[in-house]
Amino acid sequence: MNLQDKNKVKTIVLNVLISISLLHTSFIYRPIHESTILSDKKKLNYAILISQPNHIKAVVNTAESITKDSKYRRETLVVMACAKSVEAFVKGSEFAELIQKGKAAGIQFKICGMSLQQFNIDPLTIMNGIEIVPNGLTYMFDLQMNGYKTVEL
């Protein structure tokens, strides 16, 4: 085989390798289209762990965005309040109206019993309709184990 024939073979082999590489890349790096995501009509469950009272505004705004009819297909949205955020749930707090707005948007508010103890808050002073769970962190772990998508603020 002469030099010219060797160069032709090299060029062909190189073109084949590039073609295979491009074909492979098109499958791996194919963008995910919203229609692909929405093809599975299963509703999803979400949980947000908050630690500061001012996080309530963010979770209420989020609840209004991730509805069952949105691309997020929300079935349930749990907001788990731990640490200082539990202070927002005392009757008469400045966050009472915002919490009611969140409930109307479908948020299930839960508060951590350990955090209530840490901040010396009497459970009887908590707004009506707010569930107290013994340990907010283990509750979040339980939700994760049950398939909830979770985030911490």
In a few lines, what is going on in this structure?
This protein is an alpha/beta fold and 153 residues long. It has six helices and five strands; from the N terminus they run ααβαβαβαβαβ. The protein is elongated, with a radius of gyration of 26 Å.
Protein architecture, described:
44% of the residues lie in helices and 18% in strands. With 153 residues, the protein is of the alpha/beta class. The chain folds into two domains: 1-30; 42-152, DsrEFH-like (Hypothetical Protein Ychn, Chain: A, 3-Layer(aba) Sandwich). The termini are far apart. The model is unreliable at 25-30 and 35-39 (pLDDT under 50).
From the helix content, strand content and strand pairing, which structural class follows?
Answer: alpha/beta
In spatial order, strands of the major sheet run 4-3-2-1-5
Rg, nearest Å: 26 Å
Task: Please estimate the helix content.
Answer: 40-55%
Report the sheet-strand fraction. 15-25%
CATH homologous superfamily (4th level) name of the largest domain: DsrEFH-like
Number of E-state strands: 5
Principal-axes geometry comes out as: elongated
Q: If you average the pLDDT, what whole number results?
A: 84
Biggest sheet architecture: 5 strands, parallel
The quaternary structure here is single chain
CATH class of the largest domain: Alpha Beta
Poorly predicted runs of 5 or more residues: 25-30, 35-39
* Corresponding CATH architecture of the largest domain: 3-Layer(aba) Sandwich
Number of domains: 2
Total helix count?
6
Taking the alpha carbons of the first and last residues, their distance comes to: 68 Å
